[in-house]
Amino acid sequence: MIKSNQPIEYSTIGILSLAHMLNDMYSNYLPQMLPFLVAATALNATKAAILVSAFTISSSFIQPVFGYFLDRQGKRWLVHVGTLWMAIMLSLTGLVNNYLLLVLLASLAGLGTAAFHPQASTMITVVSGDRKAVLLSTFIAFGNIGFALSPLILVPLFQNYGLRATIYTIIPGIIVALLLYFFAPNNHVLRGGSTPPTLAEVWLSLLKARQELLAITSVIAIRALAYTGLLTILPLYFHEQHLSSTTSSHLVFIMLFSGAIGGILGGYISDRFGRKPLTIGSLVLATPCFYGFLYTNGTLSVVLLALAGACLLSSFSVTVVAAQEAIPNNKSLAAGLTMGFAGGIGGLLVIPIGRIGDLYGLSTSISVLFLLPLLAGLTALFMRNRPAANAQRIAAR
């Protein structure tokens, strides 16, 4: 078992965080391509949705499977191979003309991020000593920043050089994969010298923690629905309100960037006061901030949107750590269940939100989405209230 006074490996955390930023920039890759694909191939909306869904399904729902095998085998190489694999698959998407082949490449690319996330998040918690939540928050914040920066980097690339410029995006993937190859923690460190759990032991740990895991994954699924729904519906709503595309993109960026900062602060606060209080408080506060943004104007409206984004995402890493604490011998599986499976369910449930917008108007969809953080916060009441990391440090002295 890893001792609580293990030194924090900041250089390793920095490299893993940089890799996460690139990884999540790639995760927002296909949506940035869609307008150019439509212009070049007359791709319709249904085929575009299928293309993005292919990536979402393979990247999200397979994560728990990777998590289980990583807990068993501790294959550190999957973080750098997964990163390189995704970079290769996505860099080829602009070179193919066959739609089925494009869907296949999207599905294969998703496997790369499905391999990266459970192992990388486990590496972060292993090398973070007793600062797990705040440093995992930093790791996840880098991912959120990469996701937010994706349109600022990829759209000008495709606009100036065409879709065939996708081949150049393999270069950062190669660089980051090499950094991970040399600096990612080894298998012995990941397992802490312990014997990998058997399938029976994994099943037993899941059964023992089933109520806690159900509460955590439910919170994540509802929050993911709110997050993905806002990314999908807000630009349409802004367009309906006659805001320019530039203003709309700036507002979405403000929400995402504030969410990244909120995630870091949330991890720090949860280490001092506990995972459950932070999760409940931040999510409950997000709803009135969102409504405040909707019904105010000018600077105040923008500030409230920033606060809402920070509150919505401040529990992102906290819930991952909470799941890993619930099944401490299966950290990769916990990360796969939370960052992958639960988030994937929330993401796929956006379709009914869009249907509400078609039937009752986009303002109704927005109102439903703004209520979801409150629902997630109330669901978090069923999470287990574990001692805060700060209290554990004091008790260990």
Automatic annotation (TrEMBL):
Alphabetically sorted, this entry's keywords are: Membrane, Transmembrane, Transmembrane helix, Transport
- Top-rank taxon of the source lineage equals Bacteria
Residue ranges of every copy of the Major facilitator superfamily (MFS) profile domain listed in the record: 12-388
Q: How does it sit in the membrane?
A: Multi-pass membrane protein
Q: Which InterPro entries match?
A: MFS, MFS_dom, MFS_trans_sf, Sugar_transporter_CS
The record's GO CC annotations read: plasma membrane
Q: Where are the transmembrane segments?
A: 133-159, 165-184, 213-238, 250-270, 277-294, 300-321, 333-353, 359-383
List the subcellular locations: Cell membrane
Recorded GO MF terms: transmembrane transporter activity
Q: What is this protein called?
A: MFS transporter, FSR family, fosmidomycin resistance protein
Q: Supply the source organism for this entry.
A: Desulfosporosinus hippei DSM 8344
